[in-house]
Request: fold
Amino acid sequence: MGLLFLFILLAGCIRVTSDAAPAVPTQLATAVPLPTITLPPAPHTATPIPTVLPPTQPLPTAPPAPTLPPSPATTLPPTPAANGFITQTIGLSVEKRPLISYTFGNGPTQIVFIGGIHGGYEWNTILLAYDAIDYFTENPNMIPISVTLHIIPSANPDGQFVVTGKDGRFSRADVAWDTLPGRVNGNQVDLNRNWGCNWSATAVWRDQPIGAGSKPFSEPENVALRNFIVALQPTAVVFWHSAFNGVFAAGCPDLYQPSYDLAFVYSQAAGYPVYTSFDTYPVTGDAGDWLATQGIPAVSVELTNHESLDWNQNLAGMLAVLNQ
Ligand SMILES: [Zn+2]
Reply:
């Protein structure tokens, strides 16, 4: 009797749940349209934006974050122009990480600043570039009307990731103790030994051999950077490096005078020594050297160490170049 009762009870339960089951989808189906018609959309859209954007695209979203809250009520406000810059993915790394350019202004004179070609090993140059992006976002009036400014914070995102574990923006706390593995890209190539003037398969860094790639421009990061810069025909390209404390004028095979003029302007404002060449060890396939062969003035600015951004110095250098 007890078993029979239990069986009836269970059968009843099963029937109840199976009867109830079809009712759930219909209730849900009718419930969904209601909140979208009424007011709930505002909190609904507000929450996903901060949670979705930081993990996927920390680079472009980090600076605009403060300006996002006021606008999301309207249509699709994440338009980059509203933040004072336009972002553009100019290419992908070996490991398919984006190289991103931040563009400010729209004058005819093109000026380019590039951080992190030596990846996480020179992580301070990447943070310097992000601080510059913040600065010009907050101070767009500091960009002359005649200028379009392009900042590429991380020209070797694979090398940045090795040291920081982050794509896009990172903080000092993310930087690993050993930064050396982050100098090269995903193919173990030093991206400042892979350009098309004075290229050598047997490149060195200090007294050690280092990867130069299978041929000039074998690396996708450099192809992207080269194509982007050549299309712009800028009047100045500044690569940030660390840490030799100086501004080095590019040229190949000899010094390119417009590069020296640019180096002089930057160094005078920033207070770094200026050099006509880098002689500590042979540098083959240098990026700025190749640009000089294309008639594009380029310099390497070496920060004083691997930690400091030398912010005041480099802000002065940037403003001097923008206003020259
Ligand atoms: Zn470097």
In short: Residues 75-323 form a domain with the Aminopeptidase fold (CATH 3.40.630.10). Residues 2-31 form the longest helix (30 residues).
